[in-house]
Amino acid sequence: MAEPARARPLPTPETKHFWDGTQAGELRLQRCDDCSHVYFPPRPFCPSCASRNVSIFNASGKATLYSYVIHHRPAPGFTPPYAIAVVELAEGPRMMTNIIDCPQTPEALELDMKLEVAFETLDDKVTLPVFRPAKG
Q: How far apart (Å, rounded) are the C-alpha atoms in residues 21 and 19?
């Protein structure tokens, strides 16, 4: 019997730009053209001022580790232990993600550690942004 697969996000018209970006190796965020607020997750209006005058731009891909838990129980598509993390992007927003290329231990996962985006292709339609320790 095949192992259960990892859950897949379901792109919507409002999030299409984000998922198209991850497939292209880009982390795309939105910025309000009226109040300059940068936000995530994607939505058609600014969560700060409710303006629909928003732009899409490529983020730097730099982040810091804001918070995490190390999950030790099996889950479909994951091999324990694995970190479920919240990272703070250099542009301001926070996002939930996974940390890769690093031991999944409290000794290795230090809060405020510098991270960089990487992309994990799940299939021909979905590529996820994940983060790894920044080089250099």
A: 5
DSSP string, 59-94: ---EEEEEEEEEE-S-BTTB-SSEEEEEEEETTS-E
Q: Which residues of 34-68 are buried (b: 16+ CB within 10 A; e: fewer)?
A: eeebbbbebeeebeeeeeeebeeeebebbbbbbeb
SS3 52: coil
pLDDT digits (tens, 9 = 90+) for 25-54: 999 999 999 999 999 999 999 999 999 999
Residue 5 binned pLDDT confidence (cut-offs 50, 70, 90): confident
Amino acid identity, position 28: R
16 pLDDT higher than 80 = yes
The C-alpha atoms of residue 56 and residue 36 are separated, in whole angstroms, by: 12
Nearest to 23 by CA among 121, 132, 114: 121
Contact (Cβ atoms closer than 8 angstroms) between residue 129 and residue 27: yes
